[in-house]
Amino acid sequence: MNTEPSRRSFIKKTAIAGTAALVLPTIIPASAFGANDRINAAVLGINGRGNSHIQGFMAQKDVQVTTLCDPDMNLLTAGKKTFKEKYNTDVALEQDLRKVFDNKDIDVVSLATPNHWHALATIWACQAGKDVYVEKPGSHNISEGRKMIEAADKYDRIVQHGVQLRSSPSVQQAIKLMREGYIGRVYMARGLVFRMRGDIGDKGVSPVPEGLDYDLWTGPAPKRPFTRNLVHYNWHWNWDYGNGDVGNQGIHETDLCMWGLDVGFPTKITSMGGKYLWNDSKEVPEVLTSIYNYPDENKIIQFEVRPWYTNSEGGATVGNIFYGDKGYLVVDGYDKFQTFLGEKGTPGISGDDGAAASSGMDRGAGGTDGHFANFIDAVRKHDKSILNGPVETAHLSSGLAHLGNISYRLGRVLDFDPKSETFVNDPEADKMLTRDYRPGFEVPDQV
């Protein structure tokens, strides 16, 4: 695998803006957008987060969603009606994302497909000259993340990863405080994903619904007999398509753990958990505890997934806690934080931009709309360096989740070499860095 840039050189962030400190050239091609040129956008995958993507694009000046794409025509038909009612304009429909990439009138695409499509769709879009906003996790396995970086670089495309808390002014302030030593030397980060994930049952095998192109839905993954256990949301809990909650909600938190500690991939990983509540069709663990150790940096990440009734930690159920030798800092959700100092945990500086949600912003002044604004700004300027969630974050934050899942699935502690992005003398674990792809849907070795 390509070993450059190293795990530390490309993840360091500026204190305030939270963008990658990797110095990327500002390239202004002849076709660069002017300040008032309309950008045509397509949204791929409209069942869940895709609806927020539509809103995120349509909230931007001189940006128009012109195409909705999904393998399920039933969703597209309903989506077209909703779009017309909300925005008083029509939108084109397309089931095959390859036709979207071939459309020269489309400038940017956003990907809210299932996880197993994210990397290949990003690579295809870059090859077609499109700029890309890709939902978390950027990749379904570690090797895909590296290929995404290579594709964005080779084809000189703007690729924003959907970790919208990086566009939250409050979270940016929290990172700045830690960089300035407000809670002392920060040595540990704890990621929390305590979400209500109930029994999904087992719906068995059934005929493919009319209107669904199941072959396209499956794409790079193994094609199983159709089941409602997968389509349209519960694929998250199946290894062939999803990555469990650490690779779902958890990517926001893995990303913030790494950003706050200023680290890349760890050298030692252990993970343990299981299914303790439901006898359903989920393959992934309901409860998962992962430890990522950085002995060279003298830092550690703890990550915990809980699916049901539980307590909060520091007032957060989904968020992050950072521990320093002068106190600790809690990021609750996407847009607020609180600090606690000294032995008595005296409350210190706090921040909350959630009040801005009343003005129409999603999840605070950063949130999805703010993250899309940052993406569109970078697209207009053709400047990767101003992205809050550059493609490197898609590789690293997703990769951290993948490492924990591999340790869980193999049932043992793993040693990892961040430079080669392979395990140390462990061919069995190395096989899980990638996957077998269906013919016609291969993630290429050479992008």
UniProtKB/TrEMBL annotation:
Instruction: Outline the extent of the Gfo/Idh/MocA-like oxidoreductase N-terminal domain.
Output: 39-162
Keyword list (alphabetical) reads:
Signal
PANTHER family per the record? Answer: BCDNA.GH03377, OXIDOREDUCTASE FAMILY PROTEIN
Keyword Transmembrane appears in the UniProt entry: no
> Which residues belong to the signal peptide in this entry?
1-32
> Taxonomic classification, please?
Bacteria, Pseudomonadati, Bacteroidota, Cytophagia, Cytophagales
* Record-annotated Gfo/Idh/MocA-like oxidoreductase bacterial type C-terminal domain positions: 205-258, 371-441
Which Pfam families does its entry note?
GFO_IDH_MocA, GFO_IDH_MocA_C2
What is the organism of origin for this protein? Algoriphagus aquimarinus
GO molecular-function terms, A-Z: nucleotide binding
- InterPro entries noted in UniProt: Gfo/Idh/MocA-like_OxRdtase_N (IPR000683), Gfo/Idh/MocA_oxidrdct_glycsds (IPR050463), Gfo/Idh/MocA_OxRdtase_bact_C (IPR043906), NAD(P)-bd_dom_sf (IPR036291), TAT_signal (IPR006311), TAT_signal_bac_arc (IPR019546)
Report the protein name in the record: Tat (Twin-arginine translocation) pathway signal sequence
Among PROSITE patterns, the record links this protein to: TAT (PS51318)
UniProt cross-references to Gene3D superfamilies, sorted A to Z: Dihydrodipicolinate Reductase, domain 2 (3.30.360.10), NAD(P)-binding Rossmann-like Domain (3.40.50.720)
Q: Is Ubl conjugation one of the keywords? A: no
